[in-house]
Design a protein that fits this description.
Elements (H helix, E strand, L loop, with lengths): L4 E8 L6 H17 L4 E3 L10 H8 L4 H14 L2 E3 L3 E5 L2 E9 L5 E6 L5 E4 L2 E4 L12 E4 L2 E5 L8 H9 L4 E6 L5 H17 L2 E6 L15 E3 L5 E4 L5 E8 L1 H9 L16
Parallel strand pairs: 1-2, 2-3, 10-11, 11-12
Antiparallel strand pairs: 1-15, 3-5, 4-5, 5-6, 7-8, 9-10, 12-13, 13-14
Length: 274
């Protein structure tokens, strides 16, 4: 039986225009988190690349293999499970917004390509990820010594079926690297994370980037951990920092016994992929 208690950390990093500088900073934050007892660490969406259509292809041209190799090393040297936020991944001339996951030995144990691309036309803001990225096709869960986790990326959170499918496949905690902006963040960030946690009675970790007020795309920040009852148990502000939470996955069973919505699904009426 796994040890279901562990300390988790989110590194709410401010991404620099210099990728080398960003990677060095990310390594230091991961190392600090591990030194403070974190056994599972999560980075934000596009942590190694400025979140802008003007930079995605430019940074992808550098390749993703070096970043993957570095993250594997961070996981191995710090003996942690690392959810590597997301980075621009290129394969056969297609670009993906991808989260790589590594175990304590530095072995890659999962890869999630963002399934739902951020194509929006909000008042005062247009953004079309599909101009650059190809959508992924997988529901991503993975096993660790603490239990089974799930991972998705940012805009994925607006599609509850994806998270129900992860929970049906056994995920008891879900990680969401993200970069909600200054319009959607105040309105929907906390609401979305809490509702996906409540929907499936799972722990939820939303790993946001820190806000750079000098950059064109400003992230809302406010990384947070949510418990299976939908309670926010830890939250950042907008600045660069490391957020910690002590997780006990047995609480998923406790909440599901007290309020058994997840156990009362009418799969004779509706269902999602298992």
């Amino acid at each position: 039986m796994e040890n279901q208690r562990f300390r988790a950390a989110i590194c709410q990093i401010l991404t620099e225009l210099d990728q080398t500088q960003t990677m060095e900073k990310a390594e230091n934050m991961v190392k600090e988190a591990a030194a403070n007892g974190a056994q599972v660490v999560c980075l934000p969406e596009m942590f190694n690349c400025p979140y802008s259509g003007a930079y995605f292809k430019q940074f992808a041209a550098k390749g993703h293999t070096d970043s993957v190799r570095e993250m594997a090393r961070w996981a191995r040297e710090n003996k942690i499970v690392l959810i590597g936020g997301s980075i621009p991944e290129i394969e056969e001339n297609r670009l993906y917004n991808t989260s790589f996951v590594f175990d304590e030995k530095g072995e890659q144990i999962a890869r999630h390509r963002k399934v739902h691309l951020f194509d929006v036309d909000l008042p005062g803001m247009r953004f079309k990820e599909s101009n650059t990225f190809t959508p992924g096709k997988d529901i991503t869960v993975f096993d660790t010594k603490f239990g089974r986790f799930g991972v998705a990326v940012c805009f994925d959170v607006r599609f509850p079926e994806l998270f129900r499918a992860m929970a049906k496949r056994g995920a008891r905690m879900i990680f969401l690297p993200a970069q909600f902006n200054m319009k959607t963040g105040p309105a929907h960030w906390e609401l979305s994370l809490r509702m996906r946690a409540v929907d499936n009675e799972v722990f939820f970790a939303g790993a946001a980037a820190a806000r750079d007020e000098k950059f064109s795309y400003q992230c809302w920040g406010h990384s947070m951990f949510v418990d299976p009852f939908g309670t926010v148990i830890a939250e950042c502000e907008e600045k660069e920092q490391i957020l910690y939470a002590d997780i006990d996955l047995e609480q998923t069973d406790v909440i599901r016994a007290q309020l058994p919505t997840f156990h009362c699904l009418r799969e004779d009426v509706y269902s999602v992929a298992k």
